[in-house]
Amino acid sequence: MSGVNVRPAASDVPNGKTGGPVAPRLDPVSADKVAKEFESMIVGQMMESMFAGLESSGTFGGGGPAEKPWRSFMLQEYGKAIAEAGTLGIGRMVREEVARLYAQQAETAS
């Protein structure tokens, strides 16, 4: 999972120097990406738990030792698709909380 970019830009600091303490700025694109990755991981893990008790069926070519890793890959991709659609709202809540924390941090640094 990638981090959120909080490095101050030279234009945000007097005289363009970034040596002193500066309140971090939240990069909305990075925050959105991290929030979606988090939601994707959570949904994928929930689906892993849901599918854990299901037996594979040989009728449609399922079963065997290769099914377990392939099922895991499939569930991860389902998690990514659900996160990208934003239907659960987990990513939105994470993004809002990250923004709130950065705003609070900026207030205390000022």
Q: How would you describe the overall organization of this protein?
A:
With 110 residues, this protein is mainly alpha-helical. 57% of the residues lie in helices and 0% in strands. The protein has helices at 28-51, 67-85, 90-109. Helix 1 crosses helix 2 (67-85) and helix 1 (28-51) packs across helix 3. The chain starts with 27 loop residues before the first helix and ends with a helix.
Please render the helix and strand layout as text.
Blueprint: H1 28-51, H2 67-85, H3 90-109
Helix pairs in contact: 1-2, 1-3
Mean pLDDT across the residues is 78
SSE class: mainly alpha
**Which parts are unreliable, with pLDDT below 50 for 5 consecutive residues or more?**
none
* Beta-strand content estimate: under 5%
Q: Could you state the order of secondary-structure elements as H and E? A: HHH
| Alpha carbon gyration radius | 20 Å
Shape: rod-shaped
Q: Roughly how many Å apart are the termini?
A: 30 Å
Q: Which percent bin holds the helix content? A: 55-70%
Question: How many helical stretches?
Answer: 3
Q: Main sheet, how many strands, which sense, barrel?
A: none
Quaternary assembly: single chain
Kindly state the number of beta strands.
0
